[in-house]
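Chapter review. Work through the record for protein disulfide-isomerase before attempting the end-of-chapter questions.
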Amino acid sequence: MMMLVTVFLLVPVCSALYSSQDNVVELTSANFHNKVITSDDIWVVEFYAPWCGHCKNLVPEYKKAASALKGIVKVGAVDMTQHQSVGSPYNVQGFPTIKIFAADKKKPADYNGLVFRIIPTEKKVVGDVVWCNRISFDAEHSFVLREQNYNSIVKSSHVLYIAIFNLLKRIAGARTAQAIADAALDAVKKVVNSRLGVKSAEGPGSRSSSRGQSDVVELTDENFEKLVLNSNDIWLVEFFAPWCGHCKNLEPHWKAAASQLKDKVKLGALDATVHTIMASKFGIRGFPTIKYFAPNSDANDAVDYDGGRTTSDIVNWANSKVLENLPPPKPTEAIDQDIVEDQCKEKQLCIFAFLPHILDCQSKCRNDYISLLEEMGAKYKRNGWGWIWVEGGAQKDLEDAFGIGGFGYPAMVAMNYRKMKFAMLKGSFGKEGINEFLRDLSFGKGQTAPVKAGFCGAVFPKVVKLEPWDGKDGQPPIVEEIDLSDVDLDHSEL
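Structure tokens for protein disulfide-isomerase:
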């Protein structure tokens, strides 16, 4: 029994990766809060498992980093097999995970250098990796790219090889004491600048110097939530790395798109190698990664951008989101010239609905028609059309311009203001008939005719100024009764 107890007591000692002789502080569920969270010290903390091969490989470099940072930054380690509760608030899911507790202890920054899962290999030295294969094609259509066949297959010499080499080199280099120390010192610099009220100096990978007067908004860990999340604006955010070739290729297109989309969509850029809190929050694993944030989005609402990477691709994709987020159009009553022209001038099409007179179609009847127009407007809102309704007989010039008079009410036409041409609904004025008419217009179908010139040859028909409908039923005019008692009729005329 004594032998069993002795062995049991030795187990934790044998399994621990760090000892009291190291400069790595052993952190536990008992001391973590006091040593790390409530202290003013900056901490680099490794969450590890004693059985983890990567953790064992990291030990000598981590000890070296701790010695180099002694007196500047505290370096600690948590054995997650013994103190799982310490890591659970920080979403520790793999080993080793390193986090830097600096200015905001509740939101530690991930040390993103340790990205071991990017490639399916256990090798830590670039030279050991001969081939990484995730191809799901059959052998007949799979190729191992080599110098001898690269040009014939890819037709772009060396580019893929260099990209993979740099990626592997970066992963291997991230495990060094130097890389860990550099990340810790970056955190120190940010805390010092924050306390001095000085904006953090741009790192070597910053693109602000090349952006000049760019309309791209520079995003950071500090301003991201304030500017992007729960904003009334539409945002496209690029997460980039300064060393990434694709990011450099995207930059001029991103800047040009930001200029073209100004006042409609905001474009931002965040250096994920510096601002690691936000990069971690959105699970950034490759560069560039572009995320779309609709108005009033929170962090869980971020959507991956799936468009192209040219200026026109970005602008077209963003404009489609602008239309998608527009409120459904409200049909406007044609009561003066300005209202009608405002609905038509800058639109591809404007839809005119001529509704029966209020005496022929009282408030419920009219509201049913207007509700139908609203439903159709919401369905086709991405087209950005204008919507107008007109009381039958109230705007004679408009009716004459479209040749409405002989068709009766309700009636509908779609007009292109720039071309001064229109198409008329020939089917029923109901959901199916209108939907078919509008669907054809969306695809450029339908017969058109020129709009009849207005008064004295005016380009647009005259719209007379009227009082808006008050929403009430119409009242027939009061006809004054004539008293015939005093009228002397000649009976011979009867």
